[in-house]
Amino acid sequence: MAVRRSGSNIVLGVTGSIAAYKSCDLIRRLQEAGYSVAVVMTKEAEAFISPLTLETLSGQRVSREMFKGAADSWEIEHIGLAEQADLVLIAPATAHILAKLANGLADDLICSTALASLAPKLIAPAMNTNMYGHPVTQANIKRLKEIGYHFIGPTEGRLACGTTGLGHLADVMTIVEAVNAILK
User: Fold this and answer.
1) Which homologous superfamily is 9-183 in?
2) Catalytic positions, please?
């Protein structure tokens, strides 16, 4: 097991994309690189992967609901997550989450945590080629880059809809390398 170091707390946001299953490998690879991974997931992500799977892999409770913290804690969950984060990583990131982040919406735990955190943010989009290339999505990405968000991918590949094109989640090790580069 890798030695945990200062600057090693990753808050991983998992959204409702078929690529959510890759978050399992991402958690393992981040842990192997010495990071602690706290997972936050949207309710849409639960259609693709279970919280229990992510809890088992991360070794931590998965945060899912905006106003449902631990029964024995008074901590405001999104603030606690935001303060512990050395990096907020959203992988996979849907067009929906990009739109909410670009417009400052804080109606779910991932967006609230990202908005409350002073840590760097790294976004790994995954979606249909047409959705990714849509002018609104591209404008949202541009806006997020202008305010300091980092992006990795997407890449070209076979998509869940059966087409091949730009929109495939970046390779897990490429994401880990981007995390290392930001936190070095």
Assistant:
1) Flavin prenyltransferase-like (3.40.50.1950)
2) 161
